[in-house]
Write a structure and sequence with these properties.
The complex is a heterodimer of chains A (992) and B (99). Chain A has 992 residues and is of the alpha+beta class. The longest helix of chain A is centred in the middle third of the chain and has 18 residues. Chain B is mostly beta strands. Classes of the chains: A alpha+beta (992), B mainly beta (99). The interface between A and B is medium-sized, with 25 and 30 residues.
Chain lengths: 992, 99
C-alpha cells in the first residue's frame, strides 16, 4: 500500500492546505511539507526513472542526500530541473514533473534498457571505445537520448541573483542539536555568530526525534532569535570551504519553479569569512545493499521515521525495517507508534537490553540475526520481502508494503575535506570521520561521529565555547544544557556491506541509485583491475551525479575493500570537493550578467557621439564610437565617407581611451630610457616622440608616444588595450627590478580627454580655432607639442599622426572634453570637418602601414615590423638581451608587408593564412603557411580591401603573389605583396 | 579564497591581488653594453626558467586592485598558508626548517 497522511502529528500546518500538481495531476499538501512528503501523502510512490536502466524509483532519503526523487519544477522562464523533492518546500501552485521517462513515468519504454542490462555493465561506455569508431556511434546515439536527468532551461535566465559578503567570528554550518549548542555557546561568550542550515527551519532531527531534544531545540531557537549577535540563515547550504576560512553558501530565496516577487532574488550567494568554522553538518544514512533495494517504497530508515514524525506521513501499514545499528530502533518506534505494523530485522545476533525493551514497548516485532535479501516489488511498491539469516542458508518471504533499511551513518565531513583535511576510518562507527585538518574548522555532533543527542549537544557546546574563547570572548556563558534521554548515549553497529544473495526472488542490488551502479558492477570493476577507489569511481560512475555519492560512496568502497580482502581504511575514500550539493549557476554570476557583467568606461564625449548617431564597439571596458550614421547611410557608406573625408578634408576622432601615464621624478629620464627600445635620452622638453616598448624576451609589448613636459616630467600614451598592462609593467620594474630609481608613475587615462584632428585641412582649421598661435612647421613642427588655451579652455596640442595625414591631437582635462570637442566641431564646419570612428581610423592606419593590435600580438620583434632601425644600439633597455637571441635575428622571420588583391577588387579577411599553393589542401595535406594577414580593411584610397600581414622574408618579396586563404570564410584570394606604406611612403603628408 | 596580508593595507582578499612570480629570481644586471654569451644565457634563464617547488615559496604579488604596491610573500603552495609578507624591497624573515 502506498503512503498516506496520518490523522495527526507532524510539524506541518494543517490549517494551511496547499495545492500543487505532479505530472499534471492535482494534489494537495500542507504548509511545512516538502514536495517529497506531500507526494507520499498523496500516495505517489513512483517519482522518477533511473539514469541508465530507467528503473522505477521513489524517494529514498529526507534531505540533500536524495539520489532518486529528482524533478523539474515550473514552466517557461521559471523551469528548473534536477531539483530534489526532499529539498523543495511545498508552495501553493507548485508544478512538478518527473524526468527521464518516455513517454510517461508509468509507461517508460526505455525501461527496456533494464532487460538488456547485461549488455550495459560498468564501464560499458569505455568498452565500446575498443571497437571501431562506427560501432561506437550507434550506441552513442541511443545513450545520448536515453541516459540523463532533467533538461536545462534553454531560455535566458532573467532571475535576479545576489552576492553577499559576511564576516563573523564563528560560522556554524548546520542547525541541528550540536550546531545550535555551538552557536549558543559562542554567542553567549560574546562572539558574533552565523548559523546556516539547508532546511527551511533549524533543528535537524532534534525537531522530531524525541520530546526532550525538541525542548532544547525550541529554547535554543528563541534564544537565537533574540540575540542580535547571531545571524540565522535557513534554506542556506554551506557548500564549499575555501582558503583562510572562506565558506561559500547558497541561500534559496525564491521557491524553485515559482515566479519571483518584485525585487526578490532567486538565490543569494554568500561569501562568509569566519575566524572559526564549526561543522555541525550531521551524518548521512546509507542503505543496506540487497536485491531490488532501489524500488519505490524502499527507503532509508531515518527517512521513514522523519516522514512520519516531521510530516505526519506514513510510508506503509506493514513496514519492514532492516538494520545493522542502534539508531533504527528510534525510527522503528516512531513508525509503530504512528500505527504501522513494524518488523525490525537486526543483523546482529545480540543487542542491549535497553534496545529490546524499546522495541517491545513500541510493539515492534524484533528479529535478531536476520536481514533482508530482496524486495518483491515493481513500480507500485513492495508486496513482500525475502528475509533470512546472514549465512544465506535459509530464507522466507514476509508480507510488507514498505521497506526501510539502514547500513549505518556516514558523518558529513565534506567541508573538512574541502580544505585538505584527511578522512580517518573508525572501526567502532564503521565510518570515516574528520582526521588531520589544515584549517580552523572543527567538526561536532554526528559529523564528528557523536550520534547520541547528548554527546552531540555537549560537543557543540564545548567547541562553540572554545572557538569564542580562542578569539578572546570570555563572557559568562552559563551552564551547558543537558538532555535527559531514554536513548542510549552511544550507538553500536555491525559491519554489513552486502546482504546474502536471495534464493526465492531475484534482482540487482544497487549501491549507487542515481548512477545505476550495482554491487556486481563494483565486483566487475575490481575484477577488471580498477582497484583504487578513484578508478572505481571513474569506471562505474559510482559517487558521481547530483548527489555525489552521499548514500553510496562508503558502501561502494567497502564492497571494493571486501572484494580485495583489504580493510576499508586501507582502500580509503575518494576526496570530497565542492560543491557539497548542487549550486545553481546563476548564483555564481550573481548580478553580474548582461550589461552589468563588467563596468562600462565612457569617454567624456560619449554623449555627444551618441547624439551624433554613433554606433559603439566594445574595446575592453570602453565603448568607442565605431562610425557615425547619417540618414540614408548603411555602415559601409558611413565608414567610407568618414575615411575619405580625412584624406580629403579633415576629421575628428575621440582618442580619450588611449592609456595616459604621468611619469615624474629625478630619474624619470633614465627610466623612460630603459623602458623604450628606441632612444629617449635626447627627447627635449616640448617635444613628443613615438616609442616602442619591448618585453624582456625581446617581443614588442606596446607602442605609444612620450611627451616631455619638463626636465623630470613626462606624459606617456599607450594603446587602449595595453594601458593597464603597461602601467603594471612600469610599476613592477620600479618596485622590484630598479627600486633605486626615484620615479613615480600614475595612470591619468581618466583625467584626460583626447581627440585627433587629421586631414590636409587640419592645420587651417586649428589655426582658425587658435588664431593667436603659430601653427606653421616652424611654430609647431611634426612631433612638437604645446600647452595652450582654446576659448579659455586649457588644451595640450600635439602634432602626431596615426592616419598618415597632417594631424594633431588635442588633449584636455576630462571635464573640458565635451566643450573642446564642440568648439572644434563648430570651427571645423567651414573646413568640412566630420567626426570619424574606429572603423575609419583602422582603415586609415592600415593604409599608412602603422602597426596596432593585430601586429603587436606578442610574437613580433621591431625588425619584424620594419622598425628594426629604431632599436637603440648604445643604451640598455628592457628586451635588449632578449632581442639578441639567435632566433630573433634570423633572416627568414615573418616580416610586415602590405597586401592588396591581385585583381584589384577581391575581398579578403584578417586571420587568413598566406600560402603559395592555390589550394589549402584537404584533410591531412594542408599546405604550409608562409604567413598570415594581421589586419584588413577597405581602403578608400585604393578602392579595394588592403591589409597588413606577415610573410617569411616579406620585406624582400614585394611584388610577389600569394594566396590569402580563409577556409572558414570560403575565401581564397590571390594577393600581391607590397610595401606596408600603402599611401604616401615618404611621409610628405604628415610632415607637410 | 586566500587572505593576503598587504604590508600597507592589512589582510585583503586574494581577488584584489595579481600574482607576479617567484621572488627569488633576480633580473640579471644588463647595463653593460657588451654582452657575453654567459650574460645572454643568464638573461634567457631569467626569462624562461621557473622552479616548481613543493612547499614554501617566496613570491611577488601586486596589490593591483588596492594600493598597487608589490609585496613579497612566503606561501606554502601545498596548503596555501602564508607565513610572512613584506614590501617588495624588504627581506623576508627566515624560518627554522620544517615550520
Amino acid at each position: 500500500m502506498p503512503g498516506f497522511r496520518l490523522e495527526q502529528g507532524g510539524l506541518i500546518d494543517r490549517s494551511t492546505p496547499l495545492n500543487f500538481r505532479f505530472d499534471g495531476k492535482s494534489m494537495s499538501g500542507f504548509a511545512g511539507d516538502t514536495l517529497a512528503s506531500a507526494l507520499l501523502a498523496n500516495g505517489v510512490q513512483l517519482m522518477g526513472r533511473s539514469f541508465k536502466y530507467h528503473r522505477p524509483r521513489g524517494v529514498y532519503g529526507s534531505g540533500s542526500e536524495e539520489p532518486n526523487a529528482l524533478m523539474t519544477l515550473g514552466r517557461g522562464q521559471e523551469e528548473e530541473s534536477n531539483l530534489r523533492a526532499t529539498m523543495v518546500d511545498l508552495y501553493d501552485g507548485l508544478d512538478a514533473r518527473s524526468q527521464n521517462a518516455w513517454p510517461s513515468l508509468n509507461l517508460d519504454l526505455l525501461s527496456a534498457n533494464s532487460m538488456i542490462s547485461a549488455f550495459l555493465p560498468a564501464g560499458f561506455y569505455y568498452k565500446i571505445f575498443l571497437g571501431s569508431a562506427n560501432f561506437w556511434l550507434l550506441p552513442e546515439y541511443f545513450i545520448r537520448r536515453a541516459a540523463g536527468l532533467g533538461y536545462p532551461n534553454a531560455l535566458d535566465n532573467e532571475d535576479d541573483f545576489q552576492h553577499h559578503y559576511q564576516h563573523c567570528d564563528v560560522l556554524v554550518a548546520g542547525g541541528g542539536t550540536s550546531g545550535l549548542a555551538a552557536a549558543l555557546a559562542a554567542a553567549r561568550s560574546g562572539a558574533s555568530v552565523v548559523i546556516v542550515d539547508e532546511h527551511a527551519r533549524l533543528g535537524g532531527q532534534g525537531l522530531w526525534r524525541n520530546a526532550e531534544e525538541r525542548v532544547f531545540v525550541d529554547a535554543a531557537l528563541s534564544e537565537l532569535e533574540a540575540n542580535p549577535k547571531i545571524k540565522v540563515l535557513t534554506r542556506t547550504t554551506a557548500w564549499g570551504h575555501y582558503d583562510d576560512n572562506m565558506v561559500a553558501c547558497i541561500q534559496i530565496e525564491g521557491d524553485p519553479g515559482a515566479p519571483l516577487a518584485p525585487h526578490q532574488p532567486r538565490a543569494r550567494a554568500w561569501h562568509m569569512r569566519a575566524q572559526r568554522v564549526i561543522y555541525a553538518t550531521g551524518a548521512i544514512e546509507r542503505p543496506l545493499v540487497f536485491a531490488n533495494n532501489d524500488r519505490p517504497g524502499v527507503m532509508l530508515a531515518h527517512a521513514a521515521g522523519s516522514f512520519a514524525s516531521k510530516f505526519g506521513v506514513l510510508i506503509g501499514k506493514r513496514i519492514l525495517l532492516a538494520t545493522n545499528n542502534d539508531d533504527s530502533y528510534a525510527h522503528a518506534s516512531i513508525l509503530a507508534q504512528a500505527g504501522a505494523e513494524v518488523t525490525l530485522l537486526d543483523a546482529r545476533s545480540a543487542v542491549s537490553a535497553a534496545l529490546t525493551a524499546q522495541a517491545k514497548a513500541a510493539q515492534v516485532d524484533l528479529r535478531l540475526g536476520q536481514t533482508v535479501l530482496a524486495a518483491k516489488a515493481g513500480k507500485a511498491g513492495p508486496s513482500a520481502a525475502e528475509i533470512g539469516a546472514l549465512d544465506g542458508k535459509s530464507s522466507s518471504l514476509i508480507d510488507c508494503d514498505a521497506i526501510a533499511s539502514s547500513g549505518g551513518w556516514s558523518p558529513s565531513i565534506h567541508l573538512h575535506s574541502h580544505t585538505g583535511g584527511k578522512a580517518e576510518w573508525r572501526d567502532d562507527l564503521q565510518a570515516f570521520v574528520a582526521g588531520k585538518r589544515l584549517q580552523e574548522g572543527v567538526t561536532v555532533g554526528a559529523a564528528a561521529g557523536l550520534f547520541g543527542a547528548q554527546d552531540a549537544l555537549a560537543s557543540g557546546w564545548q567547541q562553540g565555547l572554545a572557538a569564542a574563547q580562542d578569539l578572546g570572548h570570555h563572557q559568562a556563558s552559563g551552564e551547558a544544557p543537558r538532555l535527559e534521554l531514554a536513548e542510549a548515549p552511544t550507538t553500536t553497529i555491525m559491519p554489513l556491506w552486502s546482504c546474502p544473495k536471495p534464493k526465492i526472488l531475484k534482482g540487482k542490488a544497487f549501491v549507487d541509485f542515481q548512477n545505476d551502479a550495482s554491487a556486481s558492477d563494483v565486483a566487475m570493476a575490481n575484477q577488471e583491475g580498477y582497484r583504487s577507489v578513484e578508478h572505481l569511481k571513474r569506471y562505474t560512475t559510482l559517487g558521481m551525479g547530483t548527489d555525489q555519492g552521499k548514500t553510496s560512496n562508503i558502501n561502494g568502497h567497502a564492497l571494493l575493500a571486501e572484494a580485495q580482502g583489504r580493510a576499508i581504511a586501507e582502500v580509503g575514500t575518494t576526496t570530497f570537493r565542492p560543491p557539497y550539493s548542487p549550486v545553481t549557476l546563476g548564483a555564481f554570476g550573481g548580478p553580474h550578467t548582461g550589461m552589468a557583467f563588467a563596468p562600462i568606461r565612457r569617454t567624456p564625449m560619449q554623449a555627444l557621439h551618441a547624439a551624433a548617431g554613433a554606433s559603439f564597439v566594445e574595446a575592453g571596458l570602453w565603448y568607442r564610437a565605431e562610425w557615425y550614421s547619417r540618414p540614408g547611410e548603411d555602415m559601409w557608406a558611413s565608414i567610407k565617407r568618414e575615411a575619405l573625408n580625412v584624406r580629403q578634408a579633415v576629421g575628428m576622432c575621440d582618442v580619450s581611451t588611449l592609456g595616459k601615464i604621468d611619469v615624474q621624478g629625478p630619474d624619470a629620464q633614465e627610466f623612460i630610457q630603459r623602458l623604450y627600445c628606441n632612444g629617449m635620452k635626447t627627447l627635449p622638453v616640448g617635444k613628443v616622440r613615438y616609442g616602442l616598448m619591448l618585453r624582456d624576451d625581446g617581443m614588442v609589448f606596446d607602442d605609444g608616444t612620450v611627451a616631455r613636459l619638463a626636465d623630470q616630467h613626462y606624459y606617456m600614451t599607450t594603446t587602449t588595450a595595453k594601458a593597464a598592462a603597461v602601467l603594471a609593467h612600469m610599476e613592477y620594474h620600479l618596485d622590484v627590478v630598479w627600486p633605486d630609481l626615484k620615479v613615480r608613475v600614475a595612470s591619468i587615462t581618466d583625467q584626460w580627454a583626447g581627440m585627433s584632428i587629421a586631414g590636409p585641412r587640419s592645420r587651417e582649421m586649428l589655426q582658425a580655432a587658435l588664431p593667436g598661435l603659430d601653427l606653421s612647421n616652424e611654430g609647431l613642427p611634426f612631433m612638437g607639442f604645446l600647452d595652450t588655451e582654446l576659448n579659455g579652455l586649457p588644451i595640450r596640442l600635439l602634432r602626431i599622426s596615426f592616419s598618415g595625414e597632417l594631424a594633431y591631437e588635442v588633449h584636455t582635462p576630462s571635464r573640458f572634453g565635451p566643450q573642446v570637442w564642440q568648439v572644434l566641431e563648430q570651427v571645423g564646419q567651414d573646413f568640412g570637418l566630420m567626426a570619424y570612428g574606429t572603423e575609419a581610423l583602422g582603415a586609415l592606419r592600415i593604409e599608412k602601414g602603422h602597426v596596432a593590435g593585430g601586429e603587436l600580438d606578442g610574437r613580433t620583434t621591431p625588425a619584424d615590423m620594419g622598425l628594426g632601425k629604431m632599436v637603440a644600439k648604445k643604451k640598455d633597455f628592457i628586451g635588449r638581451l632578449g632581442l639578441m637571441r639567435e632566433g630573433l635575428s634570423r633572416d627568414d622571420r615573418p616580416r610586415l608587408v602590405g597586401l592588396m588583391p591581385a585583381d584589384g577588387r577581391s575581398k579578403f579577411v584578417a586571420g587568413s593564412q598566406l600560402t603559395e599553393a592555390k589550394s589549402v589542401g584537404g584533410f591531412g595535406q594542408i599546405t604550409k603557411s608562409l604567413g598570415w594577414v594581421s589586419s584588413a580593411h577597405f581602403s578608400v584610397e585604393h578602392g579595394c580591401t588592403i591589409a597588413l600581414g606577415f610573410v617569411e622574408n616579406g620585406d624582400r618579396r614585394h611584388g610577389e603573389t600569394l594566396y590569402a586563404a580563409s577556409p572558414l570564410d570560403g575565401l581564397h584570394v590571390p594577393v600581391t605583396l607590397v610595401s606596408p606604406h600603402m599611401i604616401d611612403p615618404q611621409g610628405e603628408r604628415q610632415h607637410g | 579564497m586566500m587572505l593576503i596580508p598587504c604590508p600597507w593595507c592589512g589582510p585583503r582578499a586574494e581577488s584584489e591581488f595579481t600574482y607576479i612570480g617567484d621572488a627569488r629570481r633576480q633580473r640579471p644586471d644588463t647595463s653593460a653594453l657588451e654582452v657575453s654569451p654567459e650574460a645572454l644565457q643568464a638573461h634567457s634563464d631569467y626569462v624562461y626558467l621557473r622552479d616548481n617547488p613543493k612547499g614554501w615559496h617566496q613570491e611577488y604579488w601586486q596589490h593591483s586592485s588596492g594600493c598597487r604596491a608589490h609585496l613579497k610573500v612566503e606561501r606554502n603552495v601545498v596548503d596555501h598558508r602564508i607565513r610572512a609578507s613584506v614590501k617588495a624591497d624588504e627581506a623576508l624573515p627566515s624560518f627554522p626548517e620544517g615550520r
